[in-house]
Write a structure and sequence with these properties.
The chain has helices at residues 6-19, 27-34, 38-55, 78-92, 113-126, 143-153, 211-221, 269-272; strands at 58-63, 69-74, 98-99, 103-104, 134-138, 157-160, 171-177, 184-190, 199-207, 226-236, 248-257, 262-267. With 276 residues, it is α/β, with parallel strands linked by helices. It has two domains: 6-74, Orthogonal Bundle (Arc Repressor Mutant, subunit A); 78-272, Rossmann fold, CATH 3.40.50. The strands form four sheets. The protein has a six-stranded mixed β-sheet, sandwiched between helices. A two-stranded antiparallel sheet has the order 1-2. Helix 1 packs across helix 3 (38-55) and helix 2 crosses helix 3 (38-55).
Length: 276
Protein backbone atom coordinates (compact mmCIF):
# COMPACT_ATOMS: atom_id res chain seq x y z
CA UNK A 1 0.00 0.00 0.00
CA UNK A 2 1.39 3.37 -1.03
CA UNK A 3 0.92 6.35 1.26
CA UNK A 4 1.14 9.28 -1.12
CA UNK A 5 0.14 12.89 -1.02
CA UNK A 6 -2.79 13.69 -3.28
CA UNK A 7 -0.59 15.35 -5.89
CA UNK A 8 1.64 12.28 -6.12
CA UNK A 9 -1.42 10.02 -6.14
CA UNK A 10 -2.86 11.93 -9.10
CA UNK A 11 0.38 11.50 -11.03
CA UNK A 12 0.57 7.79 -10.22
CA UNK A 13 -3.07 7.20 -11.20
CA UNK A 14 -2.62 9.14 -14.43
CA UNK A 15 0.38 7.03 -15.39
CA UNK A 16 -1.55 3.85 -14.65
CA UNK A 17 -4.49 4.92 -16.80
CA UNK A 18 -2.27 5.96 -19.71
CA UNK A 19 -0.45 2.62 -19.57
CA UNK A 20 -3.69 0.61 -19.60
CA UNK A 21 -6.01 2.07 -22.27
CA UNK A 22 -9.35 0.37 -22.97
CA UNK A 23 -9.03 -1.55 -19.70
CA UNK A 24 -11.73 -1.48 -17.02
CA UNK A 25 -9.97 -0.66 -13.75
CA UNK A 26 -11.99 -1.23 -10.54
CA UNK A 27 -12.01 1.68 -8.11
CA UNK A 28 -11.08 -0.80 -5.39
CA UNK A 29 -7.71 -1.29 -7.08
CA UNK A 30 -6.82 2.37 -6.60
CA UNK A 31 -8.47 2.47 -3.19
CA UNK A 32 -6.44 -0.47 -1.87
CA UNK A 33 -3.27 0.68 -3.66
CA UNK A 34 -3.25 4.07 -1.96
CA UNK A 35 -5.20 3.31 1.22
CA UNK A 36 -7.80 5.91 0.30
CA UNK A 37 -11.58 5.95 0.42
CA UNK A 38 -13.46 5.35 -2.83
CA UNK A 39 -14.97 8.80 -2.51
CA UNK A 40 -11.47 10.31 -2.56
CA UNK A 41 -10.51 8.18 -5.55
CA UNK A 42 -13.64 9.32 -7.37
CA UNK A 43 -12.69 12.96 -6.74
CA UNK A 44 -9.18 12.27 -8.07
CA UNK A 45 -10.59 10.67 -11.19
CA UNK A 46 -12.81 13.68 -11.80
CA UNK A 47 -9.72 15.89 -11.78
CA UNK A 48 -7.88 13.56 -14.17
CA UNK A 49 -10.94 13.31 -16.42
CA UNK A 50 -11.16 17.10 -16.74
CA UNK A 51 -7.42 17.36 -17.48
CA UNK A 52 -7.58 14.62 -20.13
CA UNK A 53 -10.50 16.21 -21.91
CA UNK A 54 -9.07 19.74 -21.71
CA UNK A 55 -5.72 18.65 -23.13
CA UNK A 56 -7.26 16.36 -25.75
CA UNK A 57 -5.61 13.25 -24.31
CA UNK A 58 -8.77 11.16 -24.21
CA UNK A 59 -11.81 10.45 -22.07
CA UNK A 60 -12.50 8.54 -18.88
CA UNK A 61 -15.60 6.38 -18.93
CA UNK A 62 -17.12 5.37 -15.62
CA UNK A 63 -18.96 2.07 -15.33
CA UNK A 64 -21.34 1.89 -12.37
CA UNK A 65 -22.09 -1.14 -10.25
CA UNK A 66 -20.20 -3.67 -8.16
CA UNK A 67 -18.22 -4.87 -11.21
CA UNK A 68 -17.71 -1.34 -12.47
CA UNK A 69 -14.76 0.99 -12.52
CA UNK A 70 -13.10 3.43 -14.85
CA UNK A 71 -11.77 3.03 -18.38
CA UNK A 72 -9.39 5.36 -20.26
CA UNK A 73 -10.17 5.78 -23.97
CA UNK A 74 -7.39 7.58 -25.90
CA UNK A 75 -8.78 10.14 -28.34
CA UNK A 76 -7.47 12.94 -30.53
CA UNK A 77 -9.70 15.95 -31.09
CA UNK A 78 -10.22 17.11 -34.67
CA UNK A 79 -8.19 20.28 -34.27
CA UNK A 80 -5.13 18.36 -33.08
CA UNK A 81 -5.61 15.69 -35.74
CA UNK A 82 -5.87 18.24 -38.54
CA UNK A 83 -2.79 20.14 -37.36
CA UNK A 84 -0.73 16.96 -37.14
CA UNK A 85 -1.79 15.63 -40.53
CA UNK A 86 -1.22 18.96 -42.31
CA UNK A 87 2.33 18.96 -40.97
CA UNK A 88 2.82 15.35 -42.03
CA UNK A 89 1.41 16.08 -45.50
CA UNK A 90 3.93 18.89 -45.81
CA UNK A 91 6.71 16.35 -45.34
CA UNK A 92 5.10 13.84 -47.69
CA UNK A 93 4.81 16.40 -50.51
CA UNK A 94 8.58 16.91 -50.76
CA UNK A 95 9.69 16.09 -54.35
CA UNK A 96 12.53 13.81 -53.25
CA UNK A 97 9.97 11.33 -51.91
CA UNK A 98 8.77 10.37 -55.39
CA UNK A 99 9.43 6.77 -56.37
CA UNK A 100 8.82 5.02 -59.73
CA UNK A 101 5.16 4.13 -60.21
CA UNK A 102 3.89 7.10 -58.26
CA UNK A 103 4.71 5.65 -54.85
CA UNK A 104 6.07 7.74 -51.99
CA UNK A 105 9.12 7.04 -49.86
CA UNK A 106 7.77 6.80 -46.30
CA UNK A 107 10.25 4.56 -44.49
CA UNK A 108 11.68 7.44 -42.47
CA UNK A 109 8.21 8.49 -41.34
CA UNK A 110 7.29 4.92 -40.44
CA UNK A 111 10.46 4.74 -38.39
CA UNK A 112 9.82 7.87 -36.31
CA UNK A 113 8.39 6.89 -32.90
CA UNK A 114 6.66 10.23 -32.29
CA UNK A 115 5.01 10.28 -35.71
CA UNK A 116 3.95 6.64 -35.39
CA UNK A 117 2.42 7.31 -31.97
CA UNK A 118 0.31 10.13 -33.39
CA UNK A 119 -0.83 8.06 -36.36
CA UNK A 120 -1.66 5.13 -34.09
CA UNK A 121 -3.71 7.37 -31.83
CA UNK A 122 -5.66 8.70 -34.82
CA UNK A 123 -6.58 5.17 -35.90
CA UNK A 124 -7.38 4.24 -32.29
CA UNK A 125 -9.68 7.26 -32.09
CA UNK A 126 -11.45 6.37 -35.34
CA UNK A 127 -12.14 2.79 -34.23
CA UNK A 128 -12.44 3.29 -30.47
CA UNK A 129 -16.05 2.12 -30.35
CA UNK A 130 -15.64 -0.96 -32.57
CA UNK A 131 -14.64 -3.41 -29.81
CA UNK A 132 -11.41 -4.27 -31.63
CA UNK A 133 -9.76 -7.48 -30.42
CA UNK A 134 -6.86 -7.70 -32.87
CA UNK A 135 -5.02 -5.34 -35.23
CA UNK A 136 -3.91 -6.98 -38.48
CA UNK A 137 -1.49 -5.88 -41.17
CA UNK A 138 0.61 -7.40 -43.93
CA UNK A 139 4.38 -7.35 -43.85
CA UNK A 140 6.37 -5.20 -43.91
CA UNK A 141 5.71 -1.45 -43.89
CA UNK A 142 2.34 -1.73 -42.20
CA UNK A 143 3.88 -3.41 -39.16
CA UNK A 144 4.94 -0.28 -37.23
CA UNK A 145 1.55 1.34 -37.89
CA UNK A 146 -0.24 -1.76 -36.60
CA UNK A 147 1.79 -1.82 -33.39
CA UNK A 148 1.30 1.92 -32.82
CA UNK A 149 -2.46 1.51 -33.22
CA UNK A 150 -2.62 -1.63 -31.09
CA UNK A 151 -0.76 0.12 -28.26
CA UNK A 152 -3.60 2.65 -27.90
CA UNK A 153 -6.30 0.00 -28.27
CA UNK A 154 -4.44 -2.36 -25.92
CA UNK A 155 -4.85 -5.37 -28.20
CA UNK A 156 -2.41 -7.78 -29.90
CA UNK A 157 -1.05 -7.52 -33.46
CA UNK A 158 -1.32 -10.21 -36.13
CA UNK A 159 1.00 -10.06 -39.16
CA UNK A 160 0.06 -11.62 -42.48
CA UNK A 161 3.06 -13.06 -44.34
CA UNK A 162 3.72 -13.06 -48.07
CA UNK A 163 5.61 -16.35 -47.76
CA UNK A 164 5.44 -19.29 -45.38
CA UNK A 165 7.93 -19.57 -42.53
CA UNK A 166 8.64 -22.88 -40.85
CA UNK A 167 8.53 -21.16 -37.46
CA UNK A 168 4.86 -20.25 -38.03
CA UNK A 169 3.63 -23.84 -37.92
CA UNK A 170 0.40 -24.69 -39.74
CA UNK A 171 -0.78 -21.80 -41.91
CA UNK A 172 -3.80 -20.75 -43.95
CA UNK A 173 -2.82 -19.42 -47.38
CA UNK A 174 -4.87 -17.75 -50.09
CA UNK A 175 -4.19 -16.29 -53.51
CA UNK A 176 -5.31 -12.75 -54.21
CA UNK A 177 -5.15 -10.35 -57.13
CA UNK A 178 -3.18 -7.16 -56.67
CA UNK A 179 -5.54 -4.30 -57.44
CA UNK A 180 -2.90 -2.17 -59.16
CA UNK A 181 -0.70 -4.71 -61.00
CA UNK A 182 -3.44 -7.35 -61.47
CA UNK A 183 -0.91 -10.04 -60.58
CA UNK A 184 -1.85 -13.11 -58.56
CA UNK A 185 0.01 -13.16 -55.24
CA UNK A 186 -0.09 -15.24 -52.07
CA UNK A 187 -0.53 -14.32 -48.42
CA UNK A 188 -0.68 -16.56 -45.38
CA UNK A 189 -1.45 -16.47 -41.67
CA UNK A 190 -0.52 -19.00 -38.99
CA UNK A 191 -3.54 -20.84 -37.59
CA UNK A 192 -2.31 -20.16 -34.06
CA UNK A 193 -1.95 -16.44 -34.68
CA UNK A 194 -5.65 -15.63 -34.66
CA UNK A 195 -8.53 -17.07 -32.67
CA UNK A 196 -11.63 -17.84 -34.68
CA UNK A 197 -14.43 -15.25 -34.69
CA UNK A 198 -12.07 -12.46 -33.59
CA UNK A 199 -13.00 -8.83 -34.23
CA UNK A 200 -10.20 -7.50 -36.43
CA UNK A 201 -9.05 -4.03 -37.43
CA UNK A 202 -6.94 -3.96 -40.61
CA UNK A 203 -4.23 -1.28 -40.85
CA UNK A 204 -1.89 -0.57 -43.78
CA UNK A 205 0.44 2.18 -44.92
CA UNK A 206 -0.55 2.67 -48.60
CA UNK A 207 -3.53 1.71 -50.71
CA UNK A 208 -4.02 1.97 -54.46
CA UNK A 209 -6.88 -0.22 -55.65
CA UNK A 210 -7.10 -2.11 -52.36
CA UNK A 211 -6.14 -5.59 -53.56
CA UNK A 212 -3.95 -6.32 -50.54
CA UNK A 213 -6.59 -5.24 -48.04
CA UNK A 214 -9.25 -7.23 -49.88
CA UNK A 215 -6.89 -10.20 -49.71
CA UNK A 216 -6.67 -9.83 -45.93
CA UNK A 217 -10.46 -9.59 -45.71
CA UNK A 218 -10.77 -12.82 -47.72
CA UNK A 219 -8.13 -14.49 -45.55
CA UNK A 220 -10.05 -13.55 -42.41
CA UNK A 221 -13.09 -15.40 -43.71
CA UNK A 222 -11.08 -18.61 -43.25
CA UNK A 223 -10.95 -17.76 -39.54
CA UNK A 224 -14.64 -16.76 -39.40
CA UNK A 225 -13.40 -13.39 -38.15
CA UNK A 226 -15.28 -10.10 -38.31
CA UNK A 227 -13.59 -7.11 -39.96
CA UNK A 228 -14.63 -4.15 -37.82
CA UNK A 229 -12.70 -1.57 -39.84
CA UNK A 230 -9.88 -0.75 -42.25
CA UNK A 231 -7.47 2.15 -41.84
CA UNK A 232 -4.78 3.30 -44.27
CA UNK A 233 -2.26 6.07 -43.88
CA UNK A 234 -2.25 7.16 -47.54
CA UNK A 235 -4.65 6.25 -50.35
CA UNK A 236 -4.37 7.22 -54.00
CA UNK A 237 -7.18 9.20 -55.59
CA UNK A 238 -6.61 8.23 -59.24
CA UNK A 239 -8.00 4.69 -59.22
CA UNK A 240 -10.51 3.43 -61.77
CA UNK A 241 -11.84 0.62 -59.58
CA UNK A 242 -11.52 0.44 -55.80
CA UNK A 243 -11.77 -3.12 -54.47
CA UNK A 244 -12.46 -1.96 -50.91
CA UNK A 245 -15.34 0.37 -50.18
CA UNK A 246 -15.42 0.77 -46.40
CA UNK A 247 -12.18 2.19 -45.03
CA UNK A 248 -10.69 5.30 -43.44
CA UNK A 249 -7.66 7.10 -44.84
CA UNK A 250 -5.62 9.80 -43.13
CA UNK A 251 -4.24 11.30 -46.35
CA UNK A 252 -5.11 11.11 -50.04
CA UNK A 253 -2.50 11.24 -52.81
CA UNK A 254 -4.39 13.48 -55.21
CA UNK A 255 -1.90 14.00 -58.03
CA UNK A 256 1.68 13.12 -58.96
CA UNK A 257 3.64 14.90 -61.66
CA UNK A 258 6.69 12.71 -62.26
CA UNK A 259 8.21 15.13 -64.78
CA UNK A 260 7.76 18.22 -62.69
CA UNK A 261 8.34 16.28 -59.46
CA UNK A 262 5.21 17.70 -57.91
CA UNK A 263 3.12 15.89 -55.31
CA UNK A 264 -0.36 16.96 -54.25
CA UNK A 265 -1.80 15.42 -51.10
CA UNK A 266 -4.95 16.33 -49.21
CA UNK A 267 -6.56 15.22 -45.98
CA UNK A 268 -8.12 11.76 -46.16
CA UNK A 269 -11.61 10.43 -45.49
CA UNK A 270 -10.99 10.37 -41.72
CA UNK A 271 -11.51 14.11 -41.73
CA UNK A 272 -14.48 14.06 -44.10
CA UNK A 273 -16.24 11.62 -41.78
CA UNK A 274 -15.80 14.09 -38.96
CA UNK A 275 -17.38 16.90 -40.87
CA UNK A 276 -14.25 18.54 -42.18
Amino acid sequence: MKKLRRSARLVDMTQHLLAHPHTLIPLTLFSEEYGAAKSSISEDLSIIKEAFETQGVGVLKTVAGAAGGVKFIPRVNMEQATHFMRELIGHLEKPERLLPGGYLYMSDILGNPGTLANIGKLFATAFADKDVEVVMTVETKGIPLAYATAAYLNVPVVIVRRDNKVTEGSVVSINYVSGSSKRIQTMSLARRALAEQSRVLIVDDFMKAGGTIQGMIDLLQEFRATVVGCGVLVETADVSERLVEEYISLAKLQDVDLKGKQIEIELGSYFASEGE
